From TrEMBL:
InterPro entries linked: Cro/C1-type_HTH (IPR001387), Lambda_DNA-bd_dom_sf (IPR010982)
Organism: Sellimonas catena
TM ranges: 79-97, 109-131
Keywords assigned by UniProt, alphabetized: DNA-binding, Membrane, Transmembrane, Transmembrane helix
CDD domains (alphabetical): HTH_XRE
Pfam family, one: HTH_3
Protein name, entry field: HTH cro/C1-type domain-containing protein
Domain of life (superkingdom): Bacteria
Highest classification ranks of the organism: Bacteria, Bacillati, Bacillota, Clostridia, Lachnospirales
GO molecular function: DNA binding
Domain HTH cro/C1-type: from-to ranges: 7-61
Amino acid sequence: MNIADRIQYLRKQNGYSQEELADKVGVSRQAVSKWESEQSTPDLEKVIIMSELFEVTTDYILKGIEPVSTTNRKTIRTLYVGFALIFAIIAGIWSFAANRFNYDEIILITLAGGVVGFGIALIVQVIGGMISNKKQ
């Protein structure tokens, strides 16, 4: 897919006619038609405007580097919420345990909690790295 195809694809995905896109970008309908038929290419200023309008990167419009999909963002957000809930549950258990055990046992529970927390942070880092590598 070349730049002309990407502009046309994005325009149609967002439900714009050539005239509507032209109005939003500040050019004539004929200019958009020429971009989409490979008779000309938009200048950098227009590419930036379209990237903001379509909520994609300029790299996607110019080179075809895929944008981060909202599905990936939602997945990452869900993972963070899930880990936050797990952390909250573990913190609640530790709090309950602190009220039931003596000082020496509380120190051991706290140390165990630190190890578990470090483990969770490591898992989040690894998963984030894997997702990041898939995007590239």
